[in-house]
Amino acid sequence: MKSQEIPVAFECQGQALVGVVHVPERPGHRGVLAIVAGGPQYRAGCCRQLVLMGRSLAARAIPVMRFDYRGLGDGSGPYQGFELVGDDLNAAIETFLRVVPSIKEVVLWGGCDAASAALIHGPKNPRVTGMVLGNPWVHSEQTEAQVLVRHYYLQRIREKSFWLKLLKFRVNPVSKIASLIQALRRSRSVQSSQATTTDQGPFPVRMLRGLTQFRGRILLLMSGLSLVSKEFDQLVAGSPEWRKAMGGLDITRVDFPDADQAFSTIAARDEMIEVAGKWLTQWPG
Question: Does the N terminus or the C terminus of the chain have fewer Cβ atoms within 10 A?
Answer without folding.
Answer: C
